[in-house]
Design brief:
The complex is a heterodimer of chains A (281) and B (318).
Chain A lengths: L1 H32 L19 H9 L2 H32 L5 H13 L6 H9 L12 H26 L2 H9 L4 H30 L2 H6 L9 H12 L4 H36 L1
Helix pairs in contact in A: 1-11, 2-11, 3-6, 3-8, 3-10, 4-6, 6-8, 7-8, 8-11, 10-11
Chain B lengths: L2 H6 L28 H26 L2 E2 L7 E2 L3 H8 L1 H31 L8 H9 L6 H12 L4 H8 L16 H25 L4 H9 L4 H12 L1 H16 L2 H7 L11 H10 L4 H31 L1
Antiparallel strand pairs in B: 1-2
Helix pairs in contact in B: 2-14, 3-14, 4-8, 4-11, 5-8, 6-12, 8-11, 9-10, 11-14, 13-14
Chain lengths: 281, 318
């Protein structure tokens, strides 16, 4: 009995220690952010009183109102568009067979693994002067939205296909017997059940898009008005960390905040998406 | 949608009496042959082809030219690749990447396995809470992580203060500005990002191993060590594989953190391939050469993924 108790105590000790380890860097930057510049913080910087002036300063001086707007537009557009597109591709690959499906699917799957490092150079030059159309998309939202839809569709296709494959075959057959069109099957029969899977996918795509840095750095760093929040943070840190680390810490907390809030409410979806997705196939 | 008509034109499909062949095999989608599938695939496929696949191929194309991004390109064949072979900075950057893989992938997997072995196999109450916390580093933007750790590693930051507190003040230093310690310091950030992922994966996986296997091992007189190697480790094969892929790709994609902590410095001691690619393409105007680096990096990632997919495939047929 006591051995079991001791065992359990050990288990919780380990879990608590490592949880603290996971949490500490996040807390440390929050602590720093709760100070103001004149506190001349050093060391662990436990805040003795909460001072939000750094957040105010960071918000205005770092132009995070524009940064947040850009990030919400880009992440929102990418999430919505890739959800719609991936429901389509996932539905087709998951429930139908058509000429070439077994060649096209693996090619789409490839997109999951390649990083933006492998595509960013041509994107930069092609967006400067879009072939045939001669538009300049650099420093516009399109430069960030379009490539990230392309990449998210790869993950979305993989994810939604796995979901549609797991739906009972009889459900689709019954609906077809009732005379439903393929779109009717998708819209009226499968979509009501698909919502959790779509939500998981959307949460992940939103997070990845919100956090994305390299594309923003290369494609929209030319104008302040289109910089995303992480890019703004990077520039802000470069410009003011030396003079006031508390302000940069506050900015970092601000940039992380939207995702942390989503995580608080939808954590099941994050964990499921990141682990189950990888283990499924 | 326009598919109503298309469906109606194939009444045979709606015939409930038509015998349906059961199709088997894990790679084949269970469904009727319906080319209408293309209608659903095309929009998504178009985005993917235009904005991911085409740029990928375009990168390979650029890598065959000498180009500064402004004046006309000059065809040089594989010269960029042969230069890459001789470039000591590039070689260093791949060595750094390999070292980072140890920190991002090997350490967290070993730590995760060790802890999983140490945890009792009884259901952990409140595991959801721990899972939430352990997973947290995964979701935070690389730029934000970089800011947090830049502070932790700063001269007047928490790490140095902690060392002073436990009497090791002589070790205190500005970690990210130190030639020897900058790379391991970045590596430690990577370990922090990925260890929770590994722990959560393994703890969840170990709960799925049938208790009977452990009972059998105990009946055979296996101690905790034998039990770990005979039951736990084989039982977690799939999870370990997944952990290695996710963390290794994380390590190869370390651009955000490197750029926002050291930007490759001091003196190139933390340069990684993605950083070197960025510098060549957008600072030194050596676009063709940068594209060659991109290509090599993409091939490295592809080979790694292919390897794992093959191992995964073998598991599926067992």
């Amino acid at each position: 009995m006591t051995a079991v108790r001791l065992d359990r105590l050990g288990t919780y000790f380990i879990l608590c220690t490592f949880s603290l380890l996971a949490l500490y860097p996040v807390l440390s930057i929050l602590f720093l952010a709760l100070h103001k510049k004149t506190d001349l913080v050093s060391g662990f910087a436990f805040p003795t009183r909460i001072d939000l002036s750094s957040f105010e300063a960071a918000w205005t001086e770092g132009h995070f109102a524009t940064g947040f707007k850009s990030s919400f537009i880009v992440a929102g557009a990418v999430t919505a568009a890739s959800a719609v597109l991936s429901i389509g591709t996932g539905y087709a690959f998951g429930t139908m067979r058509f000429t070439g499906d077994r060649i096209v699917f693996p090619i789409i799957l490839l997109g999951i693994i390649f990083p933006y490092e492998a595509t960013v150079i041509p994107l930069y030059y092609d967006f400067q002067d879009v072939p045939l159309l001669h538009w300049n998309l650099l420093n516009t939202y399109w430069a960030l939205i379009l490539p990230q839809i392309g990449q998210s569709v790869a993950f979305g296709t993989f994810w939604m296909r796995a979901f549609f494959r797991s739906t009972p075959r009889s459900l689709i057959e019954a609906a077809r017997i009732d005379g439903a069109s393929s779109f009717g099957v998708l819209w009226r029969v499968l979509m009501p059940q698909a919502m959790p899977a779509v939500l998981t996918m959307s949460v992940l795509v939103f997070t990845y898009t919100w956090n994305e840095f390299l594309l923003a750095l290369v494609l929209v760093s030319g104008t302040e008005s289109h910089q995303t929040a992480p890019l703004g943070l990077s520039f802000f840190a470069g410009a003011s960390r030396a003079s006031d680390p508390t302000k940069v810490a506050a900015a970092a907390v601000l940039v992380a905040l939207p995702i942390l809030l989503v995580y608080l409410f939808l954590q099941r979806h994050f964990v499921r998406g990141m682990l189950a997705g990888a283990l499924k196939e | 949608m326009a598919d109503e008509g298309a469906d109606a034109a194939r009444p045979g499909e709606l015939d409930p009496g038509a015998p349906r062949k059961r199709r088997r095999g894990p790679t084949r989608a269970p469904g009727d042959p319906r080319n209408i599938g293309w209608l659903y695939v095309l929009p998504g496929l178009a985005f993917y082809v235009l904005f991911t696949l085409a740029p990928l191929l375009h990168t390979v194309y650029y890598s065959l030219f000498d180009w500064d991004g402004l004046t006309p390109k000059t065809w040089v064949g594989l010269a960029n690749y042969s230069e890459a072979l001789r470039d000591s900075v590039l070689r260093d950057s791949f060595v750094h990447s390999a070292i980072l893989i140890v920190y991002y992938a090997v350490f967290p997997v070993i730590i995760g396995l060790g802890l999983t072995a140490a945890l009792t196999r009884s259901a952990i109450r409140g595991f959801r809470f721990f899972r939430t916390v352990l997973f947290l580093p995964q979701l935070i933007a690389g730029v934000v992580i970089a800011q947090a750790w830049t502070w932790i590693y700063a001269s007047e930051g928490p790490l140095n203060r902690f060392l002073e507190l436990i009497g090791l003040g002589s070790l205190a230093r500005p970690w990210l500005g130190d030639f020897t310690w900058a790379l391991p310091s970045i590596g430690a950030i990577g370990s922090w990002v990925t260890f929770g992922l590994c722990m959560v994966l393994f703890i969840a996986g170990v709960q799925k191993i049938p208790t009977s296997l452990y009972d059998a091992a105990r009946v055979d007189g296996a101690g905790p060590v034998r039990e770990f190697f005979a039951v736990t480790l084989p039982g977690l094969r799939a999870e370990i594989l997944v952990a290695f892929v996710l963390t290794t790709i994380n390590a190869l994609r370390s651009f955000d953190i490197v750029y926002n902590t050291t930007a490759g410095g001091p003196g190139g001691s933390t340069i990684v391939p993605s950083m070197y690619m960025y510098q060549n393409a957008f600072l030194y105007n050596r676009v063709g050469y940068a594209a060659a680096i991109s290509t090599v990096l993409a091939i490295a990632i592809f080979l790694l993924a292919a390897l794992v997919l093959r191992i995964g495939d073998r598991g599926e047929h067992q």
